[in-house]
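step 3/5: co-fold with zinc ion
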Amino acid sequence: MKIEIEKDYLPSKIVCVGRNYADHAAELGNEVPKAPLLFLKAPSSLVRNGEPIVIPPQSERVEHEAELAIVMKERAKNLRDDEDVFKYILGFTCLNDVTARDIQRADVQFTRGKSFDTFCPIGPHIGTDLEVSDVEVQCRVNGEIRQTGRTSQMVFPVEFLVRYISRQMTLMPGDLIATGTPAGVSKLEPGDVCEVVIEGIGTLSNPVEAKD
Ligand code: ZN
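step 4/5: write tokens
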């Protein structure tokens, strides 16, 4: 089933998982973490399918990160190992974890480089009753494939992530979890069209603009 994303949808938080595909960790010269590496993106960075990604004047290198996103349905706190994680999940959507890579590196903290306005496209809708343990995640820029991976390559899979995060912070209905990106991140330029394509969900498409 497909659920439309409501117009006034605003999650309490967007929890992201860094370096959750070994090949992407390697391309940036990083080790695979021993536990999920968590960071937050500001909810004000959200945009929908078709809305522009705006490159801010502060960055010289803005990159795409195609990711499977989990949308929470129920409040989840301290989930036990034997609990069914999926009853807490509404569904899944495509998410582009747009990143100002130069700022991320310079700041060390991820907050600024990940949270500029328009840096979190999601959509085109939320897919429910989806089996996501082994689906293809792809990024295309102007129709050219830049990233391809399968969710089966995740270091920490969906169920593990929801349990783990629920033990660090309470997950609220509507909260998003971005599950990490496969290898192939690359620079976006004004005029590009960036697509995140996830098998069984659909295509999230956003034009890229520079701020005047
Ligand atoms: Zn990411």
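step 5/5: annotate
The CA atoms of residues 6 and 72 lie 14 Å apart.
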